[in-house]
Design a protein that fits this description.
This protein is mostly beta strands. About 10% of the residues lie in helices and about 55% in strands. The longest helix has 15 residues. It comes from Hymenobacter nitidus.
Length: about 240
Amino acid sequence: MPIPRFCFVAALFGLQGLLAGCAAVGHLPTLEPGDYQFFDTNDPALAATVGSEKAFYVEQVQDSLTFLAQPEAAGLPRRFAYAVQPGKHLVLLDRKFDLDVFTIPFKARPPRGPVPVQLNTNFNAALYFGRRLDFYHVNGRKLLNGHQVPQIRTVGLGYGLFTGLGSTIVNPDVTGQQSRVAEYEGFVVHAGAATIYDARIFNLGLAVGFDQLLGPDGRHWIYQRKPWFGVLFGLDLN
C-alpha cells in the first residue's frame, strides 16, 4: 500500500524535531521569494485552486503567500493569494544542486583478515556535490494579540558524491608485515556517495566510500580501495 505524501512529510518533520537542539534549527522567519514546487496541503480549497499545476513563483506578503504560475501555452500568468491560518498547512519543495565542504569525523572499516573492525578518527575532509531537496512546511500561528503570522519549518535532504583527502595509520598489521616503518600516518585520497540532512545550522550525512593509500605501502595495504562507512559533518556558514 503506497504511503501518502503527507505521511512522508510528517515523518521528515518528526525527524527534524528529534534532531533540533534549539528553537532556531529548521525554522525560518520568512519564506524567501523564488521558484517552488507545490508538494502537499491539508486545505481542500487550496488544493482545488492549485489544480494540476506544480511549478510556481511564490512570495510571502505579511501573513499571505502569493502564487504566480506561468502557463505553458501563450497567455497571461495565473496569480492568486493564500492567507495562512491555524490548522491548515502547505508544503513547498525547492530542488537544486548543492556544493559543500565536509569533515569526516570517523570511518568504520569492516574486518579484513586477522584485523578486526577498525574505527579511523584521523583527519579527513571531503568536497561534496549532489542534488538537494528543501521542504518548506508553512502554517499559521495565532499570537496572544489575536493576529496570525506564518510559521515556517524547513528540512533539507540531499544525495550525491564526494571526494577528498585524509590520513590513516599505517603499520605492519595492515600491510601484511610489509611496511618498513613500525608505524606512520599515511596520506589517502577518498571518494564515495552520501546522503545529507541539512538543519540550516549544521549538515549531517551518512557515507560509504573507499580509500587509495598513496606511497609504496599502498599495494600492500589491506584496505586499499575497500569500502568503509562513515559520517559527514559540516556547518552552514551562509
